[in-house]
Amino acid sequence: MKQPVTYKKILFWMLFYFVLICVILFFVFPIFWIATTSLKQRVDVYTEKPVLLFRATWENYQRVFQLQDFSRYLFNSFIVAGSVTLIIMYFGALAAYALTRWRFAGYNWVSLAIISARMFPPIALLPSFFLFASRLGLVDTRQVLVFAHAIYGLPFIVFMLAGFFRQIPRDLDDAALIDGCSRWQLFNQIMLPSVAPGLAAAAILSFVYSWNEFLFALVLTRASTKTLPVVISEFIGFVQVDWQGLTAMATILIIPSIIITFATQRYLVRGLTAGAVKY
Length: 279
Fold this sequence. Notes:
The protein is built from 14 helices and no strands. The protein is mostly helical.
């Protein structure tokens, strides 16, 4: 027998959906405003009152696409983000697997160091990365940017994937070794497929982080290896800000992250929740 709907329940659900809508608007409205501003003409952008009804124009995007070396900057962003994703996924899984399967001298210190490494702000690590790159002549190369992104993003991925490996019973390892698998075969052919949801979540988070990262890219790159976040900052001048070009470039930068997140949200949610165990 169904329970009667009370005024308290109605009030609760009304309040719940009101808060939910407010939270959604809080996160969606900046994206909406950036996208609409990128379609406005200059006169609509610099008015005293916000213009909600305007005649859309694609001129801002045409200016962005006609920038010198825009295709190179886009290519740099994809190459760096893709390389960082592959490196972090594999080596993060290796480290997480080792930490969950073996106890060794200094195990607790290593685990603490991995967790603590994520607490350092990027600006604190930036001087050491720049000195390292300049000594080796690697400034303005994609390799040093991939290295910096991978080093900074790896601790979080190790921490996340460790939860997945902890859920896999050790009996599976023993059975595979008894059947003749080597350690590498065990890891590559059995362990990695078993933590596929975690790898998917790690790949998404790694790609989005590297794709949007600005500070390392600003300092470690020059003209030939710039990424899109650095190019966006160049629309901010000493006298004025080119809001139309800046928002058009920002919209282009946002689109891949949105597409990847929506296309893989099932794996992302499953991956983030399935490994939610104590480290």
